[in-house]
Amino acid sequence: MAEEVADTIRDKIKSHIYALSSKLPTEPELMKVFGVGRSSIREAIRILVNDGYLRVQQGVGTFVISSEGTESLGATFERGQFSELLEVRQLLETRIVEKAALNRTQDHLKTIRRALDLRIQKAAEEDLEACIDADIAFHQAVADACGNNILAELYGASSKYMCRVFGQRYTSTKVFAETHQAHEQLYMAIQQQDVVQSRHVLHGIIEAV
């Protein structure tokens, strides 16, 4: 059922019924349109996020980011080993945090802060799925602050598969709670525009995964 919903939404995106940069209807609205449950809608959204058509912004909504998707790139990530994903993440995020420290605005900082607060909240509640989503949202918000849209999109493409791997690798929110202080330090380094400290803290975060 989720695949059918994803196919229909994908067709609407390709035919520009759901236009580029537009906000998708809410989950309840989509449930009513397609006559399916919340789990099917969420799985359909996840499929389209993985394929590069949509981006979910926590607390804001789901937005159309491409009418073509990145399915070929997605297939490469799909075949990748965990170690390869980590290497890609380290290469991308090292440059991302350096540039974010230089280019972040107050609006960027607010978005990063919201994701960070949600991350520790969901870790404390032991809500693993929501905690992983918040963790990805935090790092995506940092990527969005770097000032390079291509870097941000590349990180977004890789993070979809990191999200999946995290869901398979972890059975509790323990690791997210344990790395919260390091994420706080990364936020502070970006806020203070400290490029060297941002890079240093990030490497510690990645090594803890």
From TrEMBL:
Domain of life: Bacteria
Location of the HTH gntR-type domain: 1-67
Entry annotated with the keyword Cell wall biogenesis/degradation: no
Stored Pfam families: FCD (PF07729), GntR (PF00392)
PROSITE patterns: HTH_GNTR
InterPro entries tied to this protein: GntR_C, TF_FadR/GntR_C, Tscrpt_reg_HTH_GntR, WH-like_DNA-bd_sf, WH_DNA-bd_sf
SUPFAM superfamilies listed in its UniProt record: GntR ligand-binding domain-like (SSF48008), Winged helix' DNA-binding domain (SSF46785)
Entries under Gene3D superfamilies matching the protein: GntR ligand-binding domain-like (1.20.120.530), Winged helix-like DNA-binding domain superfamily/Winged helix DNA-binding domain (1.10.10.10)
PANTHER family xref list: REGULATORY PROTEIN GNTR HTH, TRANSCRIPTIONAL REGULATOR, GNTR FAMILY
Name of the featured protein: FadR/GntR family transcriptional regulator
Record has Transcription regulation as a keyword: yes
Keywords: DNA-binding, Transcription, Transcription regulation
